Amino acid sequence: MKLIKSIVRPNKVDDIREALEKLNVAGMTVTDVRGHGRQKGHTAVYRGKEYSVSLIPKVEIDVVVPNDLAEAVVTAIVESARTGEIGDGRVFVFPAEQGYNIRTGERDI
Amino acid sequence: MATTTDTVRLRPMTKEFRDNAAATLAAARDEYAADARKGRGGRATVQRYADRMDGLVGTVVDAARDRTATPFVVCALGGYGRRTLCLHSDIDLLIVFDGAIAQPEERFVNALLQPLWDLKLELGQHVRELAEFDASDTSNPELLLCLLDLRFLAGDASLFERVVARIAERPGPSVVLEPLLTLIEQRHQQFNNTHYQLEPDIKQAPGGLRDIAAVRHLRALAPHAFDGTIEADSDERLAEAEEFLLRIRSTLHLLGGRDVNHLTHELQEKVADALGTAGTHSHQRVESLMSEYFRRARTVTRAMASAARAVRPADPPPATRRVGRQFEINGDGVRFTNAERAANQPSLWVDAFRVALDHGCRVSERALSLIEQNLQRCTPDDFVSTEGERQQLRKLLVPRRGLYDRLSEMHDSGLLNGIFPEFAKVHCRVVRDFYHKYTVDEHTLLAIRGLESLLDPPNPGRRRFTSILQEVRAPELLTLALLFHDVGKWREADHAQESVRLAQSMLDRLELPDDERATVEFLIREHLQMSQVAFRRDSEDPQVAARFAELVGTEEHLKLLCLMTLADVGAVSPDTLTPWKEDLLWRVYVDTYNRLTLGYADQLLDKDPAGLAVLIAGRPGDITEPELVTFLAGLPRRYLSTFGLSAVYRHVRLARDIHPDEVHTFLEKHDDVWELTLVTLDKPFLFANISGVLSYFGMDIHRGQAMTTPNGLVLDVFEFTDDEGFLERNAAATTEISRMLEQAVAGAVDVTALLAGRMRGVLHRVRHHHRRPPVVHFDNEHSRKYTVLEIVADDAPGLLHRISRVISSQGCDVHLVLISTEGKRAIDVLHITRHGAKLPEADQAAVAEELQQALEAGE
Questions:
Q1: Residues of B with CB below 8 A from A44's CB?
Q2: Checking CA distances to B90, which of A54, B271, B570, B699 falls within 20 to 30 Å?
Q3: Which chain B positions have a beta carbon within 8 Å of A7's beta carbon?
């Protein structure tokens, strides 16, 4: 199994969810996060005064999928989250050793 | 050394004993469950169960008593002490020994508790020596409170009397009162201080069972504080509420199989069925259940608040004072001086709440009762039948400290629904979704509280929005729009449109001017749009941003919608408005604000009558279509969203037959604010001279805009206050200002020289104030044609004149000016060119330097 962690633009969550549903990936964890990547934020001007926006609101989406689905999931996330502009986000893939259903105690295969 | 006797005494409880105890408990629980299953697990059931538990504990005590020779007493505490024992409630026990606790006493305690633990009872036990009951020990407030419900169960009755006597030796009830009040406050804060929870905790939430116990404790601890203030039926209503809540709790315990007190959506259906609540369909039964719940909880909350006020009176108690002829204020709050007159004058009821807000107090229970008793005789029109009454109501709705509390009182007394019967449609309305924690009406009031809380922002992130609130022209419109934004939720579909529809009759009653009416309708209709753009769309997409800017149209609408969104999101649940969401919202606000102000003059109206159909169709007889279209050509597109129809037609008339060096003016007053509209033809230093004339007459300019068409037609609108009363005191003031404006426009008077003498006197008076450095910022990106100059500086007499004079003296043309103020800060945005082009950076630096010098010289 793989844990796929994506940091994406907040407005892309619905697109990503739809793309993952097409791959029959139903479960996901969505968290509001703030951070910056290589662009290290930007400056904005309000009423003639510059202020820096160093931590930009993003959304973190975590999904755990079988190994053979991981590549398709990454592709689906990348394609649905991409605008081509700086700040589109990142996708990370981690090995997930085991998973359990808390209600039933069953171990995920 | 262990003796034979000891060995006998240490024998474990026999199996038979344990089986008997288990059977006794099972029988008691079966008996309880039978009641709870039918929704009848009320006061009688919990008392009977407490009695059964007494018997069980007594049996175990008897079996264990030979472990110790020291006299002891076993007592019930807390809810068990009050004989309010639900199916899976904790069994709180106090065991007191009349002597030191040694091994035999520990064996007794073990022999008592072990069988109870084996029965899977949740125990809360306190074991003490009598000597430990130190009268001055207040370190454990929870225990002190539990002791209020102390009840003898088993053991030495005379020792119990001595324990009671020890407790009674405490210096006074204040030792318990303060901790009790603090615990109540802390508990209520966990629930955002409201009983209108969609999924309430029947025990802990405001208006729950714990509050009922607290009210009784307060009344018992300080009986003198309640002399004559407890209404005759108050105890009865409290007992009815307790019966209802206990029945719910009993069902929850039965369904959950444990100490469950959280009435979730899922359990609401089951509880409604058990209680036999009226309704054909499941959702009707749930609504009926929750409606009764909120009614009962409100009874408890009012009793709780009343009790807390009674035991914690203001220190020192305020003397009764008169406020006008109609009101007086004492420790209880605002009262009517003449109850008979007040009963027949509904507008006085509204005024009572305004007086309460003005004086930072509440409306007295007596006044609330009078309102409740007479409300049925009134129609909504009775509250706003005169212009004065309509203004009074508007003043009441201005966001300020205490507004939420007063509106909540109005809501609880029925007055809010009396004034706005449309709001009654969402009274205690439950809408089930994943997000909202409160009923629709309470969500609305909490949103208004969110607005109010901007006056004391909890963090720097929120302070950004405070500055917006300070800028808006009529913040009471925001309260009004919030009151109505969700009334359409009485039905399932498209609530925003339905809310606008329901608001119409209210807007008719209040007789708001057209532009304000349009603003309120806009806010209600579009109240979800900004959160959509901020949280669900790509706000950096130029098309999304452009569409949103077009939707809001003006900075004023943007500011109001931003505040409304913030308040609305914040009232969904305590955790919904995160710094993450605040940042997203702020970004959309700033981007749209910049788009609206910096790109204001780029899009101009052309001579195409298409799109002007409404204006053309509605024009008065004296204005021809060609005259109208010619006037509009070259004005910024936003002109049409900024001004209403009547203002546009007025401008057309002012522009009629205008010639060089002439100025046509129109001056009118709205409340305390004067509005001057003038039309003239462009020339150098024009704006500096016009603004200088207003400053010369002592006018304090708060807002305004000045626009110039490519053909040289100038339209200026200034809003200002006449703080020195020149216009009020002088009958010929209007004429004098018009005459001076004509001279200034014609170049027949040196405005700078005129102003100089006056400025010296005024500046002398304000010189010692702490002033913040001005901000001067140039932007060549946002507008295609203009350099946009933004200046933020402490407001001062003649500021606008000085700024615009510098710009003109630098050879720049002023095409558009937007003037606003935030408290004492002036925010001026000027669209300028030099020789028809944007200013290069070097020229910007030169203008900036001159401006800085002029602004500093003014200080």
A1: 587, 590-591
A2: B271
A3: none
Tell if the pTM clears 0.80, that is, is over it: no
* ipTM, two decimals: 0.72
- Chain A residues lying within 8 Å of B581, measured CB to CB: 32, 57
Beta strand B123-129 with A49-53: parallel, antiparallel or unpaired? unpaired
Residues of B in contact with A32 (CB under 8 A): 578, 580-581
Please give the backbone phi and psi of residue B87, each rounded to the nearest 5 degrees, phi first: -55, -40
For B577, nearest residue in chain A (alpha carbons): A32
Contact B426, B185 (CB under 8 A): no
Q: What is the mean pLDDT of residues B731-743?
A: 93
Q: Where are the beta strands (DSSP E) in B11-113?
A: 72-76, 91-97
Where is B34: in which H helix or E strand? helix B15-37
Q: Which of A9, A32, A53 sits opposite B538 (nearest CB)?
A: A9
- Mean pLDDT score, B459-475: 89
A85 to chain B, any CB pair closer than 8 A? The answer is: yes
Q: How far is B560 from chain A (nearest CA, A)?
A: 17
Cα B435 to the center of its chain, rounded Å:
18
Q: Can you tell me which residue has the tokens 């057309």? A: B652
Nearest chain A residue (CA) to B597: A47
CB contact under 8 Å between A48 and B776, yes or no, is yes
Mean per-residue pLDDT for A9-38? 89
Q: Do A48 and B790 touch (CB under 8 A)?
A: yes
Cα separation, B127 vs B97, whole angstroms: 8
Cis bond upstream, residue B223 (ω within 30): no
Q: Which helix (H) or strand (E) holds B85?
A: none
What is the Cα B422 distance to its own chain's centre?
20
Contacts of residue B774 in chain A, CB cutoff 8 Å?
none
pLDDT at B230: 56
| Residues within 8 A of A (CB atoms), B 572-601 only | 578-581, 583-584, 587, 590-591, 593-594
Interface residue B726 vs chain A (CB under 8 A): no
Could you give all domains of chain A from N- to C-terminal order, each with its CATH number? 2-95 (3.30.70.120)
Q: What is the pLDDT of residues B144-201, one digit of tens each?
A: 778 889 999 999 999 999 998 888 776 666 677 888 898 999 999 999 888 888 899 9
Q: Given CB atoms, is B266 within the 8 Å cutoff of chain A?
A: no
DSSP B682-702: --TTHHHHHHHHHHHTT-EEE
Decide: B572 and B554 in contact? Cβ < 8 Å: no
d(CA B793, CA B801): 13
Q: Report the SS3 class of residue A34.
A: strand
CA-to-CA separations, B740 to B435, B666, B693, B737, B759, in angstroms, rounded: 60, 14, 7, 5, 17
Question: Which chain B residues are closer than 8 Å to A34 by Cβ?
Answer: 579-580, 583
Relative to beta strand B91-97, strand B123-129 is: parallel
Q: Is B347 exposed, middle or buried (0-12, 13-18, 19+ CB in 10 A)?
A: middle
The b-or-e profile of B790-825 (16+ CB within 10 A means b, else e) is: bbbbbbbbbbbbbbbbbbbeeebbbbbbbbbbbeeb
Confidence (pLDDT) at B171: 62
Query: How many inter-chain contacts (A to B, CB under 8 Å) are there?
Result: 52
| Residue A11 near chain B (CB below 8 Å) | yes
How far is it, in rounded angstroms, from Cα A55 to Cα A34?
5
Contact with chain B for residue A84, Cβ under 8 A: no
CB B519 within 8 A of CB B525: no
- Please report the sign of the dihedral spanned by the C-alpha atoms of residue B332, residue B333, residue B338, residue B344: negative
Which residue of B583, B591, B779 is in closest CB contact with A57? B583
- Which residue is closest to B538 within chain A, CA to CA? A11
